Amino acid sequence: MTDNLETTLKALDLFGKLDPEKKVEIIKPKVKRNETLDLIVNGYEKGLENYGLYEKGKLKIKIPGGEYWKYYIAKISASLEIPSERITEFSLLLEEHENKNYFEYFTGWYLSALINGSRDKDFKIITNYLSKTIDYIGYKNTKNIDVNGNVGGLIGDGMKGGKITVNGNAGDWVGDCMEDGEITINGNARDGVGGYMEGGKIHLNGDYKSLSDYIPGGNIYHRGKLIVKNGRRLI
Percentages helix, strand, coil for the chain, rounded to the nearest 5? Predict the structure, then answer.
């Protein structure tokens, strides 16, 4: 990891611990393109295209049994065994793609595929610079992911282990269908927290709009207080 990027990430860590409503000016680091990063970006752009084609019925591929088509398209587009720092750098380039069709819906699947296919265990995703939020970050996660900035819906969907920490706000359905692991939202969350979760822990350190009506298992904490224990509401 370059010195410039490493120094800036330390500043972003500090930013993530501040009040999400406060505005802090941080100079975005310049990411130097390299062969690996070009491979990631090219796969992402092809994946965006294929996502749109499949949704319109114009891409004829067979989806294996047990695979969700959105993740499968991301997985076949993503390169395997990408180092963690390259994935962080890729997240800093996403601002260039915000105006593309399906950005909010495909990007999280692609990031999840990169992370799941990497040999590394610890990852940092930067979303502070984005005006749009990304859904489905941490799909089927088993790693440790820190997100500096806001995220969209379904963070940690189908999570099987590891930890996800969001230093910002989250959308609907935090921890949807999660089986194990730990999710911490240091900002606010919206509706349906813990929907269909079977295990694991969710920590809500800000406000939330609603819990899901169906939480089979797992524990949920609000500002340190246990509010759902083994799927049973305590409030």
Answer: 30, 15, 55
- In the chain, the amino acid numbered 138 is G
Q: What is the DSSP track for 148-200?
A: ES---S-TTTT--SSEEEEES---S-TTTT--SSEEEESS-B-S-BTTT--SS
Tokens in use for 32?
Answer: 């130097």
Task: Specify the 3-state DSSP secondary structure of 212.
Answer: coil
Considering only CA atoms, which of 29, 30, 77, 35 is closest in space to residue 53? 77
Domain of residue 216 covers 3-233
Query: How many CA atoms within 13 Å lie on the side-chain side of 95?
Result: 15
Q: Quick one: which of 119, 106, 115, 113 has its CA closest to 88?
A: 115
* Model confidence pLDDT, tens digit, residues 108-156: 999 999 999 999 999 999 999 999 999 999 999 999 999 999 999 999 9
Yes or no: say if 189 and 209 are a contact pair by the CB < 8 Å rule.
yes
Strands of the sheet with 201-204, listed across from one edge? 122-126, 144-148, 163-167, 182-185, 201-204, 219-222, 225-229, 232-233
Half-sphere exposure of 76 toward its Cβ, with a 13 Å CA cutoff?
A: 14
Exposed, middle or buried, 23 (CB in 10 Å: 0-12/13-18/19+)?
Answer: exposed
For residue 215, count CB atoms less than 10 angstroms from its CB and return exposed for 0-12, middle for 13-18, buried for 19 or more: buried
Taking the model in full, what pTM does it have? Answer: 0.90
d(CA 174, CA 190): 8
Token readout for 146 is 């820190």
Report the number of distinct structural domains present in the chain.
1
**Residues whose CB falls within 8 Å of the CB of residue 210, separated by 6 or more in sequence, listed in order:** 190, 191, 192, 193
